[in-house]
Structure to design on (131 residues):
């Protein structure tokens, strides 16, 4: 059994994320956590877009080549995105002329899921005690 930090009332095991006695939100619902994850991913894509994703990933590939491939004697072929993978990359990270639509969609999904989580919390807080 868990105890509510606000009113010290017992919270039944399967009750959920809101104290049945005082309505205090004890745990954040999973949908809100998923929304926050999408928001963070979307803003990370936006930051990568602002510092030019191609330059960032080329630098990471060069670092990997110097630190792992050359000392171990590997000679991997140059990394190149082609076909559908290049289209998905351009959609997610954008190009010089297009914004990162994948990042925008991640941010929109995060806001939508956060809103849905807020609705769930409001409904749970609005329930009468003991329901």
């Amino acid at each position: 059994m868990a105890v509510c930090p606000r009113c010290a009332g017992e919270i039944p095991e399967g009750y959920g994320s809101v104290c049945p006695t005082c309505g205090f939100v004890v745990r954040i619902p999973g949908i809100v956590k998923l929304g926050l994850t999408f928001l963070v991913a979307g803003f990370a894509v936006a930051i990568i877009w602002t510092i030019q994703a191609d330059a960032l990933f080329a630098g990471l590939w060069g670092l990997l080549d110097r630190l792992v491939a050359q000392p171990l004697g590997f000679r991997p072929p140059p990394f190149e995105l082609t076909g559908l993978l290049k289209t998905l990359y351009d959609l997610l990270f954008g190009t010089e002329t297009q914004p990162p639509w994948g990042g925008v969609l991640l941010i929109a999904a995060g806001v939508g899921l956060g809103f849905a989580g807020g609705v769930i919390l409001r409904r749970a807080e609005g329930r009468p005690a003991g329901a």
